[in-house]
Amino acid sequence: MEIYPAVDILDGRCVQLVQGRPEAATVYGEPAAWAYRWLDEGADGIHIVNLDGAFGQAQKNADLIRSFIRETSAFVELGGGIRSVEDAAGWLDTGVDRVILSTLAVREPETIRTLAEEFGSERIMAGIDARGGEVMIEGWKRPAGSYLAWAERFENLGAGALLYTNVDVEGLQGGIAVAPVADLLARTKVPVVVSGGISSPADVRALRAIGAAGAVIGSALYAGKVRLSELLEAADEDK
Fold first, then answer.
1. 44, 52, 129, 203: the active-site residue
2. What is the pTM for the complete model shown?
3. Is 236 a catalytic residue?
4. Region class of 42: left (phi > 0), else alpha (psi between -120 and 50), else beta
5. How far, in Å, CA of 66 to CA of 170, rounded?
6. Domains of the chain and any CATH numbers
7. pLDDT tens figures, 136-175
8. Cα–Cα dist 118/123, whole Å
9. Cβ count within 10 A of residue 155
10. Quick check: 68 and 95 in contact, CB under 8 A?
11. Could you report the per-residue pLDDT of 69-99, keeping only the tens digit for each?
12. Positive or negative CA dihedral for 90, 91, 92, 93?
């Protein structure tokens, strides 16, 4: 199981939000410095979210992100503000290993097929941001239907992996909800990376036990509630 520290970028700064609300941002400083720190501590890759892009300013932070991608050989997955095939292709051509399509995937599902055929399924991840069992789009503001039905559809269109974010627990540092993840894993065959609420080695062990392929760690890591080394150890147990 792989561990991806989140580097969420808002107005050029590394931040962590609570429940996706920009007014609840805690600022941690320079994004690249944090990314290199997590890589030095053994992270399997970096999960970058262009929050300004998610909030409608797609080009904000682009130069900063591109600079980091050029300077590192580490695995990088990127989401936030990808609103077209051209946006996604531009990031993939820049060197992002995997793009995450969320609102775009719901609005224009065939985008997944188009990109998977051009770049390979392994580089296309569909984002499933769910609250109360429904996919949420447009910055988690609008419901768009069953997360399980969408997961199945994304897989059939060629997504090579899914990113499941439980909006109900995201940013609260209170632990994960296992049941919806288990339901998703039972419904799909592609790797599922989980985000939202992961705050302890026990959370990682629970996800590993039900077959999750990876976990994205954010608020609890930055707040010092858990150390990356502890999460990596839990992810690698019994190997």
1. 129
2. 0.92
3. no
4. left
5. 27
6. 2-236 (3.20.20.70)
7. 987 777 888 999 999 999 999 999 999 999 988 776 677 8
8. 10
9. 19
10. no
11. 999 999 999 998 898 999 999 999 999 999 9
12. positive
In angstroms, the CA 235 to CA 64 distance is: 30
DSSP-derived pairing of the beta strands 161-166 and 214-217: unpaired
Contacts made by residues 223-226, CB under 8 angstroms, sequence distance 24+: 223/16, 223/26, 223/173, 225/173, 225/199, 225/200, 226/199, 226/200, 226/201
Rg of the chain in Å (alpha carbons) = 16
202 contacts: CB under 8 Å, gap ≥ 6? 175, 234
Supply the DSSP string of 59-91, one letter for each residue: TTTHHHHHHHHHH--S-EEEESS--SHHHHHHH
Closest among 54, 39, 58, 60 to 140, alpha carbons compared: 54
Active site residue 8: yes
Catalytically annotated residue among 8, 44, 87, 203 = 8
What is the spatial distance between Cα 109 and Cα 112, in angstroms, rounded to a whole number? 6
Token pair 């793009």 in the structure block, residue? 99
14 strand-pairing partners: 9, 29
